[in-house]
Amino acid sequence: MLTVFLGGLLIYGSFDFPLWGDPAAPASIHVSPYYIENTLKDTSVPNIVTAVLADYRGYDTMFETVVIFAAGIACLFLLRTYKTVEPDIQLYRHIPTGITLRIEKGGKFPADSRYFERLDSAWVPYGLIVKTTCRLVIPFIQIFALYVIAHGHYSPGGGFQGGVIMGASLVLFAIAFDLRSAIRRMGERVIMLLATLGVGIYAGFGILSMLLEKNYLDYSVLANLFAFDPASAHSHGILIVEIGVGIVVMAVMVLLYYILASAGKNDEGL
Amino acid sequence: MVDGVIEIIVSRINYWVYIALMMIGLYGIIIKNNIMKKIIGLSILQTAVILFFVSIGAKMNATIPIIDHPNASAHTAISATHFINPLPHVLMLTAIVVAVATLGVALSMIIKIYREYNTLEEDEILPQLREDK
Amino acid sequence: MNWQIELIILAIVIICGISALSVKDLLSAAILFGAYSFMMCLLWAIMGAVDVAFTEASVGAGVSTVLFVAAVYQTSRRTKD
After folding, report:
1. pLDDT for A5-24, tens place per residue?
2. Would you say residue B7 lies in a domain?
């Protein structure tokens, strides 16, 4: 009942809306013509959305970065447990022949032997096709993610999209192989250090520009330091800031997957 | 009279569809008993609101907000009616980011609730809560 | 030609949204949510918001669906309603 009433109220409000695609609508008159006409002159970045996001409204983007970081930390606090209890039944697979061993509680096993790999408790088959395909595809995904970050000035993209694609490539690695080998490659400490590094790049850039006697997050300090002209200084400042955003987003996506897939214990998972 | 009504309906039907989508999300949050369904409804509501905002910035016969040929355009004037409005896009980028962050936190809360009560249906959790008190 | 495509995709979006809330299997709800997210991305690409469409394609159809499936794996899969 409530939803029908609210829907009716909103429909009554929609009679005042401007027509679809009207150039004289109030949303398009007040502020955005300034952004459209002056972006190329101020910043020499053709992608208007990236320029507004990282230069004209850079303060908002900094807080958005802090929000992503806080969400990763919140997930960590909610679910992560550190007491490791070895499960009763451990499964091992002999790599050359594919035989699976099952060690009951109390049995002994040489922990680091080259010929055996540890499986999850829910027995997983040896998926050769998936592993080979992912091993081929993942480097190309990462190169594409770096391209999206670096090319955000001229095409749709930017720091956030490239960071998500990079994080998705690491999640793909963790799905195709198991979670243990992903954690062995990109451990938890490295991920958290990367997250703080990303936020530090963004906020630290603002503090750097404040140390040089200008406003916070003012990009024209680069023109004073390195002798650029002001438009290129803005463009390079946007690039540095986008790299910071990309690093944080990648780290938080991978951290969220590690925590959710193993319910906090970080040893086995999807 | 009928022409006027049909013209009103045809010109505003986009907004009504977006409002219907928002109401579907709200229905999912309020009425469904399963907590995972509530989170799906929340996410539907979030993306429907983002769709509504982006649709405000559309203009007829205008192109995407990326200036092509930046070296040549420095000499010709860039008219603001030639490009669509980029301001809602910027705000909605932040909104999508915040949506995925809250989704991550909500899903970890669901796992913790499941560990405590061993079910996700709300009509089984509420009596357990009352007798725990 | 433009508004026909938009109408069809809007219809698919509403059908995906309603069915993601009504199926009884939570894994199917997660996959339907991924499809809904991708149809939204197409809508925004038609309207000209290419940055928003890129972000939603990578976030919604990539990371968000995987997180949902991971959460369903850790909790139960069936639901009564």
Report:
1. 666 666 666 655 555 555 44
2. yes
What ipTM was reported for this prediction? 0.91
Q: For residue C59, which residues of chain B lie inside 8 Å, CB to CB?
A: 96-97, 100
Supply the pLDDT for residue C7: 86
Nearest to A248 by CA among A183, A184, A203: A203
pTM equals 0.87
Test B43 with C81 for CB contact under 8 angstroms. no
| Contact state of A78 with B105 under an 8 Å Cβ cutoff | yes
Q: Tell whether B8 is covered by a domain.
A: yes
Mean pLDDT of B78-106: 85
Rg (CA), chain A: 25
Six token digits for residue B116: 């405590």
Q: Say if the Cβ atoms of B108 and A260 lie within 8 Å.
A: yes
The tally of domains found in chain B comes to 1
Domain range annotation of chain A: 40-85+124-261
What's the CATH number where B120 sits?
A: 1.10.287.3510
3-state secondary structure of A222: helix
Chains that touch B (3 or more CB pairs under 8 A): A, C
Question: B42 — contact with chain C (CB < 8 Å)?
Answer: no
Question: Tokens at residue A119, please?
Answer: 């499986």
Distance CA A226, CA A219 (A): 12
Q: How many angstroms separate the CA atoms of C46 and C5, rounded?
A: 9
Averaged pLDDT of chain A: 78
**Choice between A263 and A240, residue whose per-residue pLDDT is larger:** A240
Q: How is chain C split into domains, by residue range?
A: 3-74
In a 3-state reduction of DSSP, which class is residue B64?
A: coil
**Distance in Å, alpha carbon of A175 to nearest chain C alpha carbon:** 10
Any chain C CB within 8 A of the CB of A204?
A: no
- Domain assignment present for residue B64? The answer is no
Domain limits for position B119: 2-59+81-132
